[in-house]
Amino acid sequence: MPPCLFCKIVNKELSSEIVYESEKSLVFKDIHPKADFHVLIVPKKHIESANRLEFEDKDLIMEMFLTAKEVALQNQLGGYKLIINVGRKAGQLIDHLHLHLLAGKIKEIV
């Protein structure tokens, strides 16, 4: 199976406006923002969706949420919304686990 879109961004094969990077995750601006501030927090490890998480991924999930907190602090967001879509019926368009961080005026729910 060829690498997914987010894997290509993580591997720097596709350009993206990167906001933050750690050892285990990458944060970049959503190309179709639904809010004044809208970034995606993506684990570097490929996991299709929250339905594919295993117990050993618990540290990765904590990293994603702590990364969201760090990005919010760095951008002085004050308040923000976190969303994980699971499956096509819930709006997941890319088969790679990701956390939406939205702040400011939200145009529509992701």
Describe the structure.
This protein is α+β, with helices and mostly antiparallel strands. It has a single domain, classed as HIT family, subunit A (2-Layer Sandwich), CATH 3.30.428.10. A 5-stranded antiparallel beta sheet has the order 1-2-3-5-4, covered by helices on one side. The protein is globular, with a radius of gyration of 13 Å.
Please supply descriptive tags for the structure shown above.
26% strand; single chain; HIT family, subunit A; 2 helices; 21% helix; globular; 110 residues; 5-stranded antiparallel sheet; alpha+beta
What does this entry show, briefly?
The protein has 2 helices and 5 strands.
Instruction: Fill in the CATH topology.
Output: HIT family, subunit A
Outline, from the CA principal axes? globular
Q: How many H/I helices?
A: 2
Specify the biggest β-sheet. 5 strands, antiparallel
Radius of gyration: 13 Å
Task: Provide the CATH superfamily.
Answer: HIT-like
Low-confidence stretches: none
| Tally of DSSP β-strands | 5
Tell me the β content. 25-35%
Blueprint (SSEs and pairs):
Layout: H1 5-10, E1 18-21, E2 25-29, E3 35-43, H2 58-74, E4 81-83, E5 99-106
Antiparallel strand pairs: 1-2, 2-3, 3-5, 4-5
